[in-house]
Amino acid sequence: MVERSAFPLGASVGLADLESDPHPTLARLRAGEPVSWLPVLDGWLVTRYDLCLEVMRDPDTYTVDDPRFSTARVIGPSMLSLDGPAHARHREPFVAPFRAGAVRERFASATQHEADRLIDELSPGGGAELRRAFAGPLAAA
Question: Given 10, 44, 62, which residue is the final one in a domain?
């Protein structure tokens, strides 16, 4: 059992903090406790980019093998539920199509068209809530 006092910010996080608008909570953790034990999740949360990369690049220390992770039980083995060579084998078909150049080549024109359309729909007075009026719809397009 992890001692709550060792991770006071993580211990103060509730599910409600993570469900509706997690960004302020994640920012607070990233600034003050970037690796934190969250009792509400019964697990560790890593919130800083460089530390996330460290975790993802160290399969000898970190694993996706967690009985609480239901993906493997629901859809079977996949790159989300496997480590090591098995993970690499399942991931390999997705590598080339998701490289930045391939994504740009395939989606740049459609993304630019949709971004232009959304910008044209913004308030002529220049005021808008960008997440709702632009970023959200663009991400979903």
Answer: 62
